[in-house]
Here is the input.
Amino acid sequence: MITPIQIEKLREDVSSVLTEKRMNHVLAVEKMSFRLGLLYFFGDDESLMLLRVAALLHDVTKEISDGEQLDILKNHNIEPLPEELASMPTIHALTAAVVIPERFPAFADERVLNAVRYHTTGREGMSIFEKIIFLADFIDETRTYPNCIALRNDFFAANPEYMDYEERVRHLDRAALRSIEDTLAHLRGKGRAIHPLTLSARADLKARLER
Ligand SMILES: [Fe+2]
Here is the structure.
């Protein structure tokens, strides 16, 4: 099991490669994913610790250059999709998932790697763990974009702690879907590329909620 001391060391290591502004966001995502985690993994301390780890590592390669991102992928024989190349801001999720086993082997848990790998695009069949990181990245307390604030407020104002587990999971699905819809509208507004995984994540969440 990961210890609080390991987490503290990880915070220091991550802060040494990120700007202060980005680190503040990362710490806010850590807090938010823990807050969300208590709703879904209460009593499961291992998952709660791993959520902290995934949050701390999700943007670890966000501040290296596009060229370095591409080099990392090349060195691991990963061929990015045209949609990924057209939208370089999503590539850091791939590279982070690739460097974690090398640079942070103690934290290379499958759940962490998947949550990091898919935190920008989402994917079909996301686990609760993945959805928590995905949503926490959108609604963390440093986000000042009105739709982020509204989703954060609405999510907690609905008192998910009083919902039964099934309804609470649907609440998470609805929130993840809302963040995806918002991201899609934003990308379309800017004429930017849309990753096919984001579209399959949306379709999957919609289908789950209609069941
Ligand atoms: Fe982030």
